[in-house]
Amino acid sequence: MQKINIVCVGKIKEEFYRAAVNEYLKRLSRFAKVEIKEIAEGRNLDEEAVNILHATKGKIIALCIEGKKYSSEQLAAEVKGFCDRGEEFTFIIGSSYGLSQSVKTQSNLNLSFSDMTFPHQLMRIILLEQLYRAFMINGGGEYHK
């Protein structure tokens, strides 16, 4: 089964966010084993970077506003490529302060979901939804319209 890691700085405190995360994890469980690793906020981005990079496995995809923008279909193709090659991969969601340049530099892909800024708790849900959508696109499911 495909292994996907998500490294996030900070915890989700609100129950409605946790419920959404759990719903998408449940949906994704038929396609992949998704592990979420929460990293404590550091005193600065460089301290966070050390902890983030220590927690990553396989190909690294950093979510950052200046990253490359993909459509849902393009993300699905990227995910399919990882799966076809049997590659484990890790998405990184930074804190409200963003990500250290060292994390972005060491990533295999810097990915942007929008020019807008989202709360990191909400970004976790958006990422999980897009991963679910990617698997549905790749499987020819009805979810993506």
Helix and strand layout, with pairings?
Elements (H helix, E strand, L loop, with lengths): L1 E8 L5 H14 L3 E8 L5 H11 L3 E11 L2 H13 L4 E5 L7 H6 L2 E4 L7 H19 L7
Parallel strand pairs: 1-2, 1-4, 3-4, 3-5
The outline comes out as globular
Report the mean per-residue pLDDT as an integer: 95
Percent of residues in beta strands? 15-25%
- Strand tally is 5
Give the proportion of residues in helices. Answer: 40-55%
Distance between the termini: 26 Å
Please state the structural category.
alpha/beta
Largest sheet: 5 strands, parallel
The number of distinct helices, counting runs of at least 4 residues, comes to 5
What does this structure look like?
The protein is α/β, with parallel strands linked by helices and 145 residues long. The chain is built from five helices and five strands, in the order βαβαβαβαβα. It has helices at 15-28, 45-55, 72-84, 101-106, 120-138; strands at 2-9, 32-39, 59-69, 89-93, 109-112. The protein has a five-stranded parallel β-sheet with strand order 2-1-4-3-5. The relative contact order is 0.24.
